[in-house]
Task: inverse folding
């Protein structure tokens, strides 16, 4: 069900505004967090923009590695998304013995194709990203721009270059954060038509 | 039904990833376009990020005025969204006599509170924005960062600092662009709970 997405279609994975997970790894450490503020930035080569707070352990790993993964979690992962968004990878890394969110929360992962960051099992899409350095912008606004160097998606709900949620069970829909751990899922679809 | 949104809550208007309309005005000219690539950038003062192509007439008006409005169109405005996204304000401005999308498409608008850009009637939310200048980033990536200086929303679906689509009729839901004029609307909502 996990299939490669042509890079020319990668922007479509984030086009409808889902909440994402962000993972990174460096020097034997790894982390994953949640982010609602992510969007496509270009079609081809595909690029993305994402806001990652200075206080996060993930940001330290991104700064060290120049890489991160964005993943589109499914509705079945709502609890996981809230949990990794509200726990500290730093605290786990400094515990004795050191741990991480993957081990502590039993989050299954698999290897990425082009970067070191681990990819979370059961997501609907995975985008492997390399940072395009804009250090002043990142320092001022916690904003990272990056190029997407590989992309995969669950072919049950993403095929032919777009999402198909109409026939998908609720657990195969993306999460869109309203606030306070409340998410809305994609529902009915409508076709807009250009006026004559 | 249109009510002011406290600036501290303004990020919530875009948090779930809706497609937006972008309007701008300068020197007696005005325009409106559609953009799927917009997101919050900060909480307070609220800031936003949006991608606006070099080829657009709206961008020329933003460059000249330093201001724009982001608006969250409703599902009832799907045709309007596609239409303003696929027509050229430049061509209308250069016609004889000159016109614009508001006149040509019969788009009703009202005055903003803090900026010159016109606000489109019938949207679900309106964010008035002043550009935070990052000219190198804008030149390289068509990306604008801006501070939100005023915000309003339709209180039937946004109140208490968040969207409430559960009880809303389909036409009062936001549009999330999948591609090719196909949008998905917010459907069921789920609550994520932090693991113990």
Result:
């Amino acid at each position: 069900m996990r299939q490669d997405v042509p890079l020319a279609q990668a922007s479509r994975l984030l086009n409808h505004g889902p909440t994402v997970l962000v993972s990174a790894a460096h020097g034997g450490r790894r982390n994953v967090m949640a982010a609602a503020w992510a969007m496509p930035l270009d079609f081809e080569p595909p690029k993305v923009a994402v806001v990652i707070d200075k206080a996060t352990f993930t940001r330290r790993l991104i700064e060290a590695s120049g890489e991160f993964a964005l993943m589109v979690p499914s509705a079945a992962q709502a609890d996981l998304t809230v949990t990794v968004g509200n726990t500290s990878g730093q605290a786990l890394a400094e515990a004795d013995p050191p741990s991480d969110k993957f081990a502590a929360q039993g989050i299954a992962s698999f290897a990425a194709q082009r970067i070191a960051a681990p990819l979370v099992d059961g997501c609907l899409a995975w985008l492997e990203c390399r940072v395009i350095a804009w250090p002043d912008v990142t320092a001022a606004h916690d904003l990272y721009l990056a190029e997407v160097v590989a992309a995969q998606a669950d072919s049950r709900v993403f095929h032919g270059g777009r999402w198909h949620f109409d026939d998908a069970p609720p657990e195969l829909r993306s999460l869109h954060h309203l606030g306070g751990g409340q998410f809305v899922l994609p529902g009915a679809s409508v076709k807009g038509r250009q006026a004559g």
